[in-house]
Design brief:
Blueprint: H1 10-21, H2 29-42, H3 44-55, H4 57-66, H5 69-77, H6 80-83, E1 110-111, E2 118-124, E3 128-134, E4 140-146, H7 156-169, E5 184-191, H8 193-200, E6 206-211, H9 217-220, E7 242-246, E8 249-252, E9 263-264, E10 270-275, H10 279-291, E11 296-300, H11 309-321, E12 325-328, H12 329-332, H13 338-363, E13 374-378, E14 384-386, H14 398-409, H15 411-414, E15 420-425, E16 430-435, E17 441-442, E18 445-447, E19 450-452, E20 456-457, E21 460-462, E22 468-473, E23 476-483, H16 501-507, H17 530-550, H18 560-584, E24 594-598, H19 606-612, E25 617-620, H20 627-634, E26 637-644, H21 654-674, E27 682-692, E28 699-702, H22 718-730, E29 739-750, E30 756-757, E31 771-777, E32 780-788, E33 797-799, E34 802-805, E35 810-813, E36 818-821, E37 827-830, H23 845-869, H24 873-876, E38 881-886, E39 892-896, H25 905-917, E40 926-929, E41 941-948, E42 958-965, E43 994-998, E44 1001-1002, H26 1004-1012, H27 1026-1054, H28 1056-1087, E45 1093-1099, E46 1105-1113, E47 1118-1122, H29 1138-1153, E48 1167-1170, H30 1186-1203, E49 1216-1221, E50 1224-1229, ...
Parallel strand pairs: 2-5, 5-13, 6-7, 6-11, 11-12, 15-24, 24-25, 32-34, 47-48
Antiparallel strand pairs: 1-30, 2-3, 3-4, 8-10, 9-10, 13-14, 15-16, 16-21, 17-20, 18-19, 22-23, 25-37, 26-29, 27-28, 27-29, 31-32, 33-36, 34-35, 36-37, 38-39, 38-42, 40-41, 40-43, 41-42, 43-44, 45-46, 46-47, 49-50, 49-53, 51-52, 52-57, 53-56, 54-55, 54-57
């Protein structure tokens, strides 16, 4: 016995042993602790033994590890503080000490009928593991423990189960022995194992097998960069370690000469197998992988979504050779689009072995390897799956999915079916989701830079949490996105961490250090440090007050509490924006929702966020700190089956659709029956993935509320469901357009039978006041009562302000709000109106930060309305538009999203209209303009401007505008992007200053005539798509109206003078940031003894010079950008309107500043721009300009960045390729190499600077257009050599299957992208046409040529320039860019990312 190791305590140890033998008489684990403590008071030896163990941490760990009775004593006698190891890391920075046992003092919660067995629901998070256990007799136990504590246990879920079995059974269960499973009925688990492996890149070694010619396809991806203004183009590393190309090829069948025998794919499409799989050559390559230790494969072959045989053959061979895991993309997710399908297969191969190893290790902790226990894991879609069906690609949201299920099964029901917003605020990030009777799924989203094509709950993660860092930058309060993480954590953790939201709340008195364990500091044995938070905040407050007292608008200094309160308010506004976007994106009003708050930090902010969004209620579950575990207990088992399809949704296909749905339904039902569910507990729901033909906007539609009719499939009226949802989300339908089915899907659900029967104790008196503290609110400190949640009962009502504390979180009930304990024991907060506050016109940096968010939110919401109501592919799906808000002088206030070529350009357009029309602007007028001399970029970009009048004001008080790219407005070629235009009229319809709406009346007849006017010019056509033009113009007018409404609400809240003042303040803030950057640049040059004047020159391929001289004024922080010496206007379309140069300049200034700033008129205030009239950068009004927008803009950027020495030149081209004939048209821009810079290699195969266009997926390209993509891979050694290498361009080969006109509009075919600081230039581009007979023709940079079946266009794009002398010692390998621990994800993030990649 281990007790013998402690001399002198044998009698006490014997007493303890006897006590343990009789412990079954005791009612609980807590009762045992109390009994031991009682006996210790009566027995001096036992008391000394208990004291010895409590005071000797090392001894206690030894005893625990040996599983002895003394070790058990170490467990049960320790105080909650002593029970914790000193290595606790907080995921949720404001979470209090988790303890074992019930969280409520109410009557036991009964969940289902356990029949004498245990049911466990476990959420294994990154830091803590939560256990929700239903014990025999209906008792519920909850437990929270560290996910990693190797000194005490090997696996947290196993340890949690062991502790509860030990507590309930009264039997000592040593940790080193497998647990008896005879009384365990089920274990349900959600885990972040897959997520963490993906974030930390700690998965399996993987090789990618891909069709020959596509070895770099996943590296190139969509070719868009993730951050527009990151010159280093930081991108996540690939999951695979090696790539093997498979000799095989399948194409869609066309009855063309020489075509082979067609075969039918599972979509119904006819295919041609051009080359069978060469398994012989593949065998040796696979054996080589095995010899290098790679055991996991991802197989991704072209068109395998419909023709899976080739992948299956490869998979069979790989398994025969001994690969332990093979993920076939055709099985992982059989959906069209090879890039996201390929990423999904790679993620599956990368993560599944890691998950399997974890599951195997977990099972080893139990007798019989859990053979007779139902073990289920939560998947990303919110359904449970058996552990053998739990795979990597479906596991990434396993953890947060449980929380969504939890509030959907509790809050939604308790609130009477009112829609709910889930708000899960942790330490590093916040998860936002929505539930209104059905789970909201998305089918493609990115996590940690990996796009996963799989059903997943729409959980939107934003980089704002308790650990978000706080900054004061150029007069602006900034929250995040950087985080303090768990180590060092916030300043109050006593480890030298930075100032965070947690510190601000602590200073305000909203967190009580006494509620936290003493686990902080270097020895991890101290309480939270209020002093450290104050000290960190004082440093920032000094910056704030220095700015206030010496800045451009002197003001009174702020107190420490006012600074802390300012940061909290800014954090709240940052978290409101994604909630607004999530709801309004689908046509919902955020104020019509209840806020369901859970997670450790959310209770601090819930009232403020609900109030800001107009919500009147917050619901906080009594187990809010463990809601994900509770959700697992309430979740259903789900099995899904899905197949690709390419049938029209039409009466002639309804029978086939019913047959396919019926087949998938049988699969789901059979799988669930095999898992032991009776048929009565199984339900199925059928879905069709529908879209209008010719569009990419597909909706996964269920017909559960639309029963079958005589004109629909028997499975339901999917057509009616599609039209209803399309109308709700987008505001219109296209009744004349056929509907296409992309996928058929069935979701089978096995009802778990588990439910909660809540019985809460009724109040027996007023709530007991624990203490009174002081909390800071607007206006000063207020006495704030503190209550303990465990002591509150049904019916108790608490007036704000007050704090409600439980073991896992602190809930702040703000003044004007009232909390009530409802029948279930949950907290419901009624949110009252905010006390009126006065905001003046004088600059307040806190209000400035809030107004910055509000102005941006207005522009974003305008964009949502435009995207919802537009009809064209360009605006609705490619999101090629920008919306903006302007001050009374036409100066840009906010512009969202950031399409580089639109930055600042609309300001020129608005200001032109103000000067041009003067007094001829009246209420009810809406203007249309696209002319280059009026601030336009190129003619297809139509700008709609609405002046806004206010009662009592004679002039417009502000302006709103929206600019959208129209697919065709006439001209000499379809698409209005001719490569050889020489006059503006050849490029389409021109609008200098056109009243689109006059006196409130849409001028349809007049605008129609103007759009058709180019047809009067010889060789030109009027618009080729009038219907889309008119629909999109109406959508732009509607978007402007939304902006007017939102600014009107802002004026109603603050007053016109205040709103206009802050429009000016936010512009001044951007000006300050640019001045700071210019001063820093000038100071750096001065310190090196260099002049304050820099210059650069580069050339267009026709020899036209772009010359720039920059003169820095160090005192003023200003600069003159003088383009004198630039070449004259050209006979062609490379002329760039002045607005293009200004957009390029704003883009460069933002890149050079290096952090987020408001992108508005203020950016150009410190800058005087000199552009010679009649030059290529300020051409005559009649000059052709379409190439200037897409090509010359890139050269302007190269010259500006070169002058500042920021980085070497990137490819400097958009590589515009157009293909068309009488019945089709296609346009793309193609990636190249990015320039290297000081400290980074250039990224290969990516778009740079003024474009960020996504490229069409290869499978979509081949299915919709008469081409075969033969190659799409990196161009080796095309990047310039240097200390840091330039990025490589790409090689892209298109084989034509029909006669068509090919047009190319490209640059950098003569002048190579420059290197910098001794770096070598990148390779120039090359456009080759390989005729069917083998003849090779260099097409040059700009041409149109007829191509015929069998011809091949081979595009070699330029590489980026190198940086630094290549002869210098080689730099250390560039480490993979470190992404934040919790990168953004969800539909809101995907929307913004898509809009920045048009």
């Amino acid at each position: 016995m281990a007790g013998s190791a402690i001399p002198g305590y044998l009698p006490a140890a014997s007493l303890l042993q006897a006590l343990l033998l009789g412990m079954s008489l005791l009612s609980s684990y807590e009762g045992l602790r109390q009994e031991i403590q009682r006996l210790a008071q009566e027995n001096e030896e036992l008391r000394q033994l208990v004291q010895l163990i409590q005071e000797n941490q090392e001894l206690k760990l030894v005893l625990r590890s040996r599983g002895s009775s003394l070790g058990f004593l170490a467990e049960v006698t320790a105080s909650p503080r002593m029970l914790r190891r000193r290595t606790i890391k907080f995921k949720d920075a404001e979470r209090g000490l988790p303890v074992e046992g019930p969280l409520l003092g109410a009557s036991p919660t009964v969940m289902g009928n356990p029949e004498g067995h245990f049911h466990f629901a476990i959420d294994r998070g990154g830091t803590f593991t939560d256990v929700f256990a239903q014990c025999p007799g209906g008792r519920v136990r909850v437990l929270k423990l560290l996910s990693e504590d190797p000194a005490n246990y090997a696996d947290a879920p196993t340890e949690g189960i062991r502790r509860i079995l030990e507590q309930e059974g009264g039997i000592l269960l040593p940790r080193d022995r497998p647990l008896d499973t005879s009384r365990i009925a089920s274990i349900r688990m959600g885990t972040t194992v897959a997520t963490n492996a993906l974030l930390e890149r700690q998965g399996e070694r993987v090789a990618l097998l891909v069709t020959r010619g596509f070895r770099h396809l996943l590296h190139i991806g969509t070719q868009a960069r993730s951050d527009l203004f990151d010159l280093a183009v930081s991108m996540p590393e690939m999951l695979y370690e090696e790539v093997l190309e498979v000799e095989e090829r399948v194409v869609l069948y066309r009855s063309e000469p020489g075509a082979g025998t067609p075969v039918k794919g599972r979509t119904g499409d006819l295919l041609e197998v051009q080359q069978p799989v060469d398994l012989g050559s593949l065998r040796g390559k696979l054996e080589g992988l095995l010899s290098r230790g790679i055991r996991s494969l991802a197989v991704v072959l072209m068109h395998s979504y419909t023709w899976a045989q080739h992948e299956q053959q490869v998979g069979t061979l790989a398994r025969e050779l001994g690969f332990t895991h093979v993920s076939l993309s055709s099985e992982t997710m059989p959906m069209v689009r090879i890039v996201p399908r390929g990423h999904t297969a790679c993620a599956d191969a990368y993560l599944t072995p890691t998950i399997q190893r974890y599951i195997q290790g977990f099972c080893r902790g139990f007798q019989g390897q859990l053979k007779d226990v139902q073990v289920l894991f939560m998947r990303s879609d919110g359904g449970l799956a058996p552990m053998d069906a739990f795979t990597g690609s479906r596991a990434v949201l396993s953890g947060p999915a449980g929380g969504v299920v939890g509030y959907s099964a509790t809050t939604y029901q308790l609130e009477g079916g009112q829609p709910v917003i889930g708000f899960d605020m942790g330490g590093t990030s916040t998860d936002v989701s929505r539930y209104a009777g059905q789970f909201e799924h998305i089918f493609e989203a990115s996590t940690a830079g990996v796009t996963l094509q799989a059903p997943q709950l729409d959980i939107n993660t934003v980089a704002a949490g308790g650990g978000s860092r706080l900054f004061f930058r150029s007069g602006l309060f900034v929250v995040g996105p950087e985080s303090a993480g768990a180590h060092p954590g916030p300043a109050c953790y006593r480890k030298g961490g930075p100032l965070t939201v947690t510190d601000a709340n602590l200073v305000l008195g909203r967190l009580l250090p006494a509620s936290f364990p003493c686990i902080f500091g270097p020895g991890e044995d101290q309480p939270l440090s209020h002093e450290a938070s104050r000290k960190a905040l004082e440093a920032v407050a000094t910056e704030v007050n220095s700015f206030l007292t010496t800045g451009p608008c002197p003001a009174s200094p702020l107190s420490l509490e006012e600074v802390a309160m300012g940061f909290v308010r800014v954090a709240n506004e940052a978290m409101c924006r994604p909630i607004r976007a999530l709801t309004q994106a689908r046509g919902h009003d955020p104020s019509a929702h209840v806020l369901a708050c859970f997670g450790g930090a959310g209770g601090q902010h819930a009232c403020a966020i609900a109030r800001a969004l107009g919500m009147d209620a917050v619901h906080i579950h009594r187990h809010s700190g463990l809601l994900s575990a509770l959700g697992l207990a309430l979740a259903d088992v789900v099995h899904e089956a899905q197949e690709p399809c390419s049938l029209p949704y039409a009466p002639e296909t309804f029978v086939q659709l019913d047959q396919r749905l019926s087949h998938l339904e049988e699969q789901c039902v059979d799988t669930l029956l095999a898992q032991g569910f009776p048929r009565s507990q199984i339900s199925t729901e059928s879905f069709l993935h529908l879209r209008y033909q010719g569009t990419d906007c597909a909706l996964m539609v269920s017909a559960h509320q639309h029963p079958a009719t005589a004109h629909s499939p028997q499975a339901g009226d999917f057509g009616a469901a599609f039209v209803e949802r399309y109308m709700r989300e987008f505001g219109f339908v296209i009744p004349e357009r056929p509907v296409v089915v992309d996928n058929v899907r069935v979701r089978g659900t096995g009802r778990s039978g588990l439910h909660l029967e809540d019985t809460a104790k009724a109040q027996t008196g007023p709530p007991r006041l624990d203490k009174v503290t002081q909390c800071y609110f607007e206006g000063g400190y207020q006495e704030t009562p503190v209550y303990l949640l465990g002591e509150l009962s049904y019916g108790h009502q608490l007036q704000g302000p007050c704090l409600i504390i439980d073991n896992n979180s602190t809930i702040l009930v703000e003044p004007g709000c009232q909390a009530e304990v409802i029948e279930t024991g949950d907290i419901r907060i009624s949110v009252g109106a905010e006390a009126p506050s006065t905001v003046g016109t004088k600059l307040d940096p806190i209000q400035l930060s809030i107004f910055s968010h509000r102005f941006m939110s207005i522009a974003e919401q305008m964009g949502r309305i435009l995207q919802r109501t537009a009809i064209s592919t360009n605006i609705k799906e490619r999101l090629d538009f920008s919306c903006a808000l302007f001050g009374p002088d036409g100066g840009l206030v906010s512009n969202a999203p950031h399409i580089p070529v639109h930055l600042g350009a609309m300001q020129e357009t608005v200001q032109f209209q103000i000067k041009h029309l003067g007094a001829d602007l009246h209420p009810g007028d809406v203007l249309l303009s696209n002319h280059p001399s009026a601030g336009g970029s190129h003619l297809p970009d139509l700008t709609v401007i609405t002046p806004v009048f206010w009662p009592g004001q004679t002039q417009p008080v502000f302006y709103v505008a929206s600019r959208g790219h129209h697919a065709d407005i006439g001209g000499i070629t379809p698409g209005s992007m001719p490569p050889h235009s020489t006059t503006l009229q050849q490029e389409g319809a021109v609008f200098l200053s056109f009243k689109l709406v006059q006196g409130g009346v849409f001028q349809e007849e007049a605008v129609t005539e103007a759009l058709r006017a180019p047809g009067k010019i010889p060789g030109c056509s009027g618009t080729r798509n009038l219907h889309d033009n008119l629909s999109d113009l109406r959508a732009q007018v509607a978007a402007n109206q939304k902006g007017i409404q939102l600014v009107g609400e802002l004026i109603g809240q603050y007053g016109l003078d205040v709103v206009q003042a802050y429009m000016g303040h936010i512009q001044a803030n951007a000006e300050l940031a640019v001045r700071d950057m210019l001063r820093a640049f000038g100071t750096s040059r001065q310190a090196q003894g260099l002049p304050l004047e820099v210059s650069a020159e580069d050339h267009m391929d026709d020899g036209s010079p772009i010359h720039l001289r920059v003169q820095i004024n160090l005192t003023q922080g200003s600069a003159v950008f003088d383009f004198s010496g630039t070449g004259p206007e050209v006979f062609g379309n490379l002329n760039a309107p002045r607005a293009i140069t200004l957009s390029a300049l704003i883009y460069c200034l933002r890149c050079l500043v290096g952090h987020d700033i408001p992108l508005n008129q203020g950016c150009l205030a410190p800058v005087r721009v000199v552009i010679p009239r009649g030059s290529i950068l300020d051409p005559s009004p009649e000059a052709a300009v379409v190439g200037g927008n897409v090509l010359t803009s890139q050269r302007v950027v190269d010259v500006i960045l070169g002058a500042f020495g920021a980085c070497a030149a990137s490819q400097g081209c958009m590589n515009n390729v157009t293909l068309g004939n009488a019945h089709m048209g296609y346009y793309e821009t193609v990636a190249g190499g990015a320039g290297a810079g000081p400290g980074w290699h250039g990224r290969s195969g990516v778009h740079s600077h003024m474009t960020n266009t996504r490229i069409t997926d290869p499978e979509i390209l081949e299915s919709r257009y008469p081409v075969i993509l033969r190659r799409f891979e990196l161009r080796p050694d095309s990047g310039g050599q240097g200390h840091f290498r330039g990025g490589d361009g790409v090689v892209r080969e298109l084989l034509f299957r029909e006669e068509a006109l090919l047009s190319v509009l490209t640059e950098r075919r003569a002048f190579r992208p420059y290197g910098l600081c001794g770096g070598e230039p990148g390779a120039s581009g090359l456009n080759l046409l390989i005729r069917k007979d083998g003849r090779i023709v260099n097409l040059g940079g700009k041409t149109s040529v007829t191509v015929y079946p069998g011809d091949v266009f081979c595009l070699h794009t330029p590489g980026g320039g190198g940086y630094g002398n290549p002869e210098d010692p080689a730099p250390p390998p560039c480490s993979a860019p470190q992404f934040p621990a919790f990168p953004e994800r969800g539909s809101v993030y995907e929307y913004r990312r898509a809009q920045e990649t048009v």
